[in-house]
Specification:
The protein is an all-alpha fold. The protein has one domain. It has 6 helices and no strands.
């Protein structure tokens, strides 16, 4: 989220980086399990995704499902099929998926920017 937003900026001065960082921290604080499922599934559906992106997406899905209280949804039979969307997004409509994934400030405190 931070890197995606930062790469969209044409110039990186301290003010731009601080603004992007602040937005990323707010996004992380508000991120629910359903949001994380949507984020991961969107990346898994990308035709240009990498193996690292797949690993990150599957880890995000596992975390989202565990946070929501449904760890049995962690397993995906074949991540390259459209079944990924159906298998993960439909269960993500339950009440547990409205829980924040990163509720504590300590989780978001790792964002640091060193400027010149």
């Amino acid at each position: 989220m931070f890197h995606e937003a930062l790469t969209a900026e044409p110039a990186w001065d301290a003010g731009v980086v601080a603004d992007v960082l602040s937005r990323a921290q707010r996004r992380m604080a508000a991120l629910t399990s359903a949001d994380l499922v949507d984020w991961a599934c969107t990346r898994l559906e990308s035709p240009t995704r990498t193996l690292d992106a797949d690993r990150l997406s599957h880890a995000a899905l596992a975390l989202a499902h565990r946070t929501a209280g449904t760890p049995d949804e962690d397993l995906v039979p074949d991540p390259s099929t459209p079944d990924v969307r159906r298998r993960h997004r439909l269960p993500a409509t339950g009440e547990g998926y409205r829980r924040p994934v990163f509720p504590g400030a300590a989780v978001r405190g790792a964002f640091v920017f060193y400027g010149a």
